Amino acid sequence: MTHDDGCGSFMECDEPSLDQLDEDSLLEVFGYFSFDELLLMSRVCTRFLQLSRRCLRKIRHFELDYRAIASKDVSEEQRQSRLRDIFANVGSNLESFKFSGGFIMNEDLKRGVVDGVALTCGTLQHLTINYVELREEHLVALTALLSHLTGLDLGRCALRDETFGPFIAKASMLHTLAIPGNAELHGEFLERWNDCQRMEQLDVSYCYSLNVGNLKSFLARAIKLKAVDVTACQWLEKDKGIFHACERKIESRAELPVFAYFKHG
């Protein structure tokens, strides 16, 4: 099957073929297709592409199943092609995206996911990437999202202050930030983050090297902050009253947004 402006003789039979149906009838038929079938139909012709995307655009919260993609017995180019198909068809309308991989993972696929999110998800509000080592080049690519992200969760992504600092300094719209389990963060990244006035919830739990004292100047700038989770962080005796000194009530547990994700890979 080729991708062209007409559908040609997509089906040869006595009954009306799909390309002979009016748009309303076609849209009803397409509503019964699975996610994979819609991706397949999007490659048939321009008309089917438009109809498939009308169906797929109903997906607002998407979780990419990395293991499903990585385990497919296909070539690397076919895996990348599938990623491109997914992002091309659903990326532009997503409000939230979630991706959990593993520290031992295909680097080309990781780059494909990062680039796909950064290049196609122009209306994304919440991004979750967990258990994925994010190096400087990945954070640089994701910087494109920071102008509209209100929620960010990069839990257990092996973040470092020297690369995460320049990245988060550009995050002016964030209301919630969760970076639990990043054991190599000390907290210097907070000193660079001046445009944090919209922040309400911060989760730095199990960042074992993070010194709670490094939150002091951040607390003064983040005037809307109402919850901070510092479970298992480092506390010095002089920092015991750090949250009382900011003259507002700050809860010790962050309540982050929860979404009902459509999961596929």
UniProtKB/TrEMBL annotation:
Pfam family, one: F-box
InterPro entries per UniProt: F-box-like_dom_sf, F-box_dom, LRR_dom_sf
Stretches assigned to coiled coil: none
Domain F-box: 18-58
UniProt-listed Gene3D superfamilies: Ribonuclease Inhibitor
Protein name per its UniProtKB record: F-box domain-containing protein
Gene label: 6042245
